[in-house]
Amino acid sequence: MNQSDLFFGIPFSHVFLLLGWVLGALLTGKLLQLVIRRASRSKRFSHRKTLQVFFISVARPIPFLFLVIGLRLGLSPLPVSAGIQAFISDIMAVLLTISIAFFVYAFIDVINHLLTVVASKTSTKLDDMMAPMVQKSLRVVIVILSLVQIAQILSDKPITSILAGLGVGGLAVALAAQETIKNFFGSLVIFADKPFELDERIRVGDFDGFVEEVGFRSTRLRTLDGHLITIPNGELANLMIENVSKRPHIKRTLELGVTYDTSPEKVNEAQQILRDILTDHEGQHPAYPPRIYFKTFNSSSLDLVATYWYHPGNYWDYMAHAGFVNQQILERFNAAGIEFAFPTRTLYLNEAGSH
């Protein structure tokens, strides 16, 4: 054969055949991908979200798979040496592994969608975070398994030897990533115990804020000042968590001091005013009636105490009601001539020269 008819020792006819297979397979894959995507957007599947997600997921890796098939069909008839043929076989095996992994990787979107649907039907918002976390975990597993398979293909070693090597390396990585592992198990504890949900207000240590996100490594808390706090889950799982949003009510203890020249009748009237204001008040629960008492004789006042509970535990509604109660007390006490006490001190001075 004339050397001008060869391309690196390969006939041009085989080269053109290879290019034809590759381009044809790639165009076929792209066309099939386009058809599947358009079908998923049709009205026929408008009410079948799961099928839409399935078609979109499957469509993503199709061009790459067809490209691998085209390469395989185009490279098979090439007149090359046994060594090069073995090398081509290994490369094709690697590409086939990648294409299968790509399919499974994309299909995880379907699993994520199904988990999201299930989580949306539960009462807790924390379950909504499970779907993306499971999605990330499965994808990491797919990538690791694919790399192990590729390593086996390229090294010609049994998978047990590779796993043994990974075990030694994994031990070193585990020792270096103790905090990461601790945080991962901390996240599992949080998801199992569910001490809080998304958008709930919690107090942890010195922080008070709303839960924005729970991940594998950390939980993000938006404080009342607007700052974003990131707390490692390993640490969070061992802390005392106060869930403010889950409180059924807000308790208020109101202490009022009246002057010492207030008569017993006026003290009784003051207590009755408090009862009138707080009995059957807004947000009162039948099991938690208000409590009003003449508490004690203070150094500069006669102290009355009123305790009541506001249901539900919405802070801003509680504050609005507290302001209303304060206004009513001020108006009623002033109308009754009952004076509020304030700290006073009486000084007795001796006359000049007296002992």
Walk me through what this model shows:
The chain is an alpha+beta fold. About 55% of the residues lie in helices and about 15% in strands. It has ten helices and ten strands. Strands 6-5-4-3-7 form a five-stranded antiparallel beta sheet. The model is unreliable at about 1-5 (pLDDT under 50).
Key traits:
single chain, 355 residues, alpha+beta, SH3 type barrels, Alpha-Beta Plaits, 3 domains, five-stranded antiparallel β-sheet, three-stranded antiparallel β-sheet, 10 helices, 10 strands, 15% strand, elongated, disordered N terminus
| C-alpha end-to-end distance | 138 Å
Quickly give the structural class. Answer: alpha+beta
The helical percent reads 40-55%
Poorly predicted regions are 1-7
Give a short account of the largest sheet: 5 strands, antiparallel
Write the layout of secondary structure elements.
Layout: E1 6-7, E2 10-11, H1 12-40, H2 49-59, H3 62-75, H4 82-120, H5 130-155, H6 159-176, H7 178-193, E3 201-204, E4 207-214, E5 218-223, E6 228-232, H8 233-236, E7 241-243, E8 250-258, H9 264-278, E9 291-297, E10 302-310, H10 315-336
Antiparallel strand pairs: 1-2, 3-4, 3-7, 4-5, 5-6, 8-10, 9-10
Concise summary:
With 355 residues, the chain is an alpha+beta fold. It has 10 helices and 10 strands. Helix 1 runs antiparallel to helix 2, helix 1 packs antiparallel against helix 3 and helix 3 runs antiparallel to helix 4.
